[in-house]
Amino acid sequence: MSGVTDRVRLLRDMDPVLTEGIWVFARLPPGAGVPDGLEPLGRFREDEGETLILGRDTAAHHGLAHEFPCRRITLQIHSDLAAVGLLAAAAGWLAEAGIPANTVSAFYHDHLFVPVAEAERALAVLRAHSAST
After folding, report:
1. What are the counts of helices (DSSP H) followed by strands (DSSP E) for the chain?
2. pLDDT of residue 29
3. What letter would DSSP give residue 132?
4. Phi, psi of 122, rounded to the nearest 5 degrees
5. Backbone angles phi, psi at 8, to 5 degrees
6. Taking the alpha carbons of 122, 124, 129, 131 in that order, is the dihedral positive or negative?
7. Measured in whole angstroms, how far is the alpha carbon of residue 125 from the centre of its chain?
8. Which one, of 106, 112, 108, 105, lies nearest residue 78 by Cα?
9. Which of 22, 31, 41, 110 makes the best surface tag, with the fewest CB within 10 Å?
10. Domains, the chain, ordered by start
11. Residues near 44 by Cβ (< 8 Å), separated by ≥ 6?
12. Is this structure's pTM higher than 0.90?
C-alpha cells in the first residue's frame, strides 16, 4: 500500500497527535546486547553503538544511560517513504518556534520527539501550520 506523496496534502492532512508516555534515547556500546525482555519503540545501530528509544521508566529500570526526556508526536497521515518535504516542513516550523525535534520515519507514519515541557506547544505549532496550508 502506497502512502501519500503530494506535499500539499501531506502538510494539510498531517493530523499530528501527541501520544502517551515519556520517551528517552538510550545508548548501548558496540557489541552490547539489548537486555532480555526489553522491547524498544525504536532501535538504530551506528558505529559508536546502538540507540534505543524507550520509555523513561524502562530505561531507568534497566540501568541504561539515557538522555532527552521527550514526548512523541505522530503525524497520522500515511506518508510514502519517498515523499518529499513533510518532515522538513514540520521540523522547520518547530525550529522557528525554538523547539528541538528528533524525527523518525517508519513505514506508515513520521514521528517527532520533542522535549516534555514543549510538547503541547509543539503540537499547537504543527496544527496551526497544517490548518493554514
Report:
1. 4, 7
2. 76
3. T
4. -60, -45
5. -60, -45
6. positive
7. 16
8. 108
9. 31
10. 7-131 (3.30.2130.10)
11. 50, 51
12. yes
List residues bridging with 51 in a β-sheet. Answer: 27, 44
Asked if the model's pLDDT at residue 1 lies above 70, the reply is no
Residues 74, 17: contact at Cβ < 8 Å?
A: yes
User: What secondary structure does DSSP assign to 41-104, as a single string?
Assistant: SEEEEETTEEEEEEEHHHHHHTT--EEEEEEEEEE-S-B-TT--SHHHHHHHHHHHTT---EEE
pLDDT 10s digits, 120-132: 999 999 999 999 9
DSSP state letter for 107: S
Strands 66-75 and 49-55, bridge-based pairing? unpaired
Q: CA dist 2 to 7, 10, 15, 55, 108, Å?
A: 15, 13, 18, 30, 9
C-alpha distances in angstroms, 125 versus 46, 65, 88? 32, 31, 14
Q: Are 99 and 90 spatial neighbours (Cβ–Cβ below 8 Å)?
A: no
Residues 6+ apart with CB under 8 A from 25: 51, 52, 53, 66, 67, 68, 70, 102, 113
